[in-house]
């Protein structure tokens, strides 16, 4: 652990992919949502993050069952929570490419972000 | 200033309308955006805030000229800023109704929130 | 409901107070927090919102018991949720003054924002 | 580009470090701030992100000169912008360790996130 090492495209693509997931999560969770508006929110999140550097592909899905179970009985809406999100991003940095994801991990009770694949 | 006074529907409708504008602003500013994605972001903001209590009508417009002038030359996107937003909300609380707005005030150099009309 | 009416200081103070609560909520919920860091987050929220127009006084308390009950067992932290917040704001607009609050309403299962008093 | 490859600790530490920077940015930019409150905001951001997984060390500095130059002349505050932030994070994932940063790049006119060092 004494030497610093050369930074590769692979390092950078994973760093960039992480930035996107962290950004997405903390920008959009908390947004009011119900079953009728989940579609437009999904689309906006996807398009918003897609404009950032290194994003080659992104797919955002909001879990409707979780929305349904969280709807406030008085007001008929809830907030977007991290656990409702399923996100798949393909990032590219020059010659390196990686797939990363965010998905709710029921065992950890946590919206887990993960490296899925490095090309 | 010693007596407290009865709270009316009119008081509540303005309070609720204010909540919505503050929420909208601090939930969605900072979102990455460019000219191609401004439409989906507008729609998502509008629908998201519309699910909250007391919102009878809402119209959100993002100023394309301001986006254009803020696009980063290297990366081709910018962030949604308060000054880019034009928002019109009609709120209702029982018998009271009000129109409020947020729009960039060039003189104050500030995204000003304002009561437009009380019915 | 046909006539529009003159807008008073009282109308404005409630509108402004609402803006602050909506802003606070959607700016800071989602922040990672645990029992050791709740104090600095409380203080920052309080001071941040205090710089906005019309805020005469503000007190923010984060419910430690709720944090404790939400701590992820693997990672030892949780996110700030609206229901963890107790907020008291005194707002002033020229001659009008009002106290407003946000507190978790167990019956509604909702972080309720309310006008407490108009002076 | 056909084979996927084994994911290393080094890959994970950079992914995790990226997540933290993206989260920090999109959670806290937009917060109202002035010269008197910058200190408590710095401290809260630092402590908040420090509770997340893999953060070994974090230092957050908000540029006072930029705050000063952005203060609204009418209201005496501004919003925290990404370009005001200088952030240094040391992340660890098992045997891998890395330093990453966010700092305003004047040439790119952009708050640049960067891998500083991999141990």
Strand order of the largest sheet of chain A: 2-4-5-6
The tally of beta strands of chain A, per DSSP, is 6
Helix-residue proportion of chain A: 25-40%
Shape of chain A: elongated
How far apart lie the N and C ends of chain A? 27 Å
CATH level-four homologous superfamily name of chain A: 7,8-dihydroneopterin aldolase (MptD)
Q: Could you name the CATH class of chain A? A: Alpha Beta
Radius of gyration of chain A: 16 Å
Strand content of chain A: 25-35%
Stretches of chain A where pLDDT is under 50 for at least 5 consecutive residues are: none
Assembly category: homotetramer
User: What count of helical segments of chain A does DSSP give?
Assistant: 3
Question: Major sheet of chain A: size, sense and barrel closure?
Answer: 4 strands, antiparallel
CATH architecture of chain A: 2-Layer Sandwich
Domain module count of chain A: 1
Largest interface: A-D, 30 and 30 residues
Give the topology string of chain A: H per helix, E per strand: HEHEHEEEE
CATH topology of chain A: Pantoate--beta-alanine Ligase, Chain: A,domain 2
Helix/strand/pairing category of chain A: alpha+beta
């Amino acid at each position: 652990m004494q030497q610093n090492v050369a930074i590769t495209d692979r390092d950078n693509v994973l760093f960039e992919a992480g930035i996107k997931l962290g950004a997405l999560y903390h920008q959009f969770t908390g947004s009011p949502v119900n079953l009728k508006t989940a579609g437009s929110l999904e689309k906006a999140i996807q398009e918003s993050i897609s404009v950032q550097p290194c994003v080659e592909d992104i797919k955002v899905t909001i879990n409707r069952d979780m929305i349904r179970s969280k709807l406030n009985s008085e007001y008929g809406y809830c907030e977007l929570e991290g656990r409702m999100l399923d996100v798949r991003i393909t990032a590219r940095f020059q010659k390196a490419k990686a797939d990363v994801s965010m998905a709710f991990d029921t065992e950890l009770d946590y919206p887990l972000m993960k490296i899925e694949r490095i090309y």
